[in-house]
Design a protein that fits this description.
Chains A, B: One of its GO terms (biological process) is pyrimidine deoxyribonucleotide catabolic process. The structure is a homodimer. Chain A is an alpha/beta fold and about 180 residues long. Chain A contains six helices and eight strands. In chain A, the strands form two sheets. A six-stranded parallel beta sheet of chain A has the order 5-4-1-6-7-8, with helices on one face. β5 of chain A pairs antiparallel with β5 (about 120) of chain B.
């Protein structure tokens, strides 16, 4: 039987850029944002006016994405998903062109069982179709995605969702049973 | 009215890597392949056994894709297509991870009217859906592509095609009338 297509997002799903963003911001501006302060919000909307461009500079710094922490249990669950589904990692990375090679190298290091054919670094995800998508941005759940699974991140905690997972163990319970 | 989605391939459609590949090969092995010698074939199948990996090394050399020649009339026609269609440039670049930033920079230089949201560097194109696709590889014309336009390249000249264009003027005649 043909495997279902499963699209998995990188940032805030497989990798954690938010902890590093907050750490760099605290280093430069002596202000460490708490989980409570960014609940339901994007970091760019929380920092003082004019500082959103600083966050952009962090994200486009060569190397920023290269050593991000892997989300807990992501490797083990992805390994199993990769057996059962036709898995693709799709990241809207094009806004940060200096991240492209870093993201590829990061995947090679932590998810070596994924082939280059399974990686897609795009701008908009609106040309991407799949049976299932796991993403922290509901804006990526367009009509071409059949089953939409919202991965909880600080900015989406108050959003409604068809299906929601809070961690990779919950992904496993949903998709590997 | 919602614009139709148009996916355009880069290599051998917008950019010419084949001339450069043949030039580098001639530089290193003193053999310049003619159009006749590569007609209906992939360069990797024409070079002596064991030399396909040399072509791969050329393609993955940082900078290889950065200064490729733009295909004749591609800029002018793409500018007009970009007004009429929802255009995305989709390149199966992930096989050559050192090409990623070069391809982005090349597009910025020659097609500055394209936004980062319109660029997608992927592995397989089988998760990409569109109303229209222009590509030199018919293997990319899967069920999610409604109208399939084969752009003539040396390797596909003997292939059947739903629709075929031989140059960008023919693209204009087909899609801008």
């Amino acid at each position: 039987m043909k495997k279902l297509t499963l699209i998995v997002d990188m940032d805030e799903v497989m990798a954690d850029p938010i902890t590093k963003l907050r750490t760099w911001y605290a280093r430069d501006f002596n202000k460490q944002y708490t989980d409570e302060e960014i609940a339901g919000k994007h970091l760019a909307d929380v920092v003082p006016a004019g500082h959103a461009s600083i966050l952009y500079q962090y994200l486009n710094t060569p190397g920023f994405f290269r050593d991000l922490v892997v989300m807990q249990d992501a490797v083990e669950v992805m390994k199993c998903l990769n057996e059962k589904y036709d898995v693709y990692v799709v990241s809207a990375a094009m806004e940060f062109p200096n991240s492209l090679k870093d993201k590829y190298d990061w995947l090679q290091e932590h998810f070596p069982f994924l082939q280059w054919q399974q990686i897609c670094l795009c701008g908009s995800k609106h040309i991407i179709s799949a049976d299932i998508m796991i993403d922290d941005h509901s804006r990526n759940f367009h009509a071409g995605i059949h089953r939409k699974i919202l991965f909880t991140s600080h900015h989406n905690i108050y959003e409604p969702a068809d299906e929601r997972v809070n961690n990779w163990q919950e992904v496993a319970r949903l998709l590997l049973k």
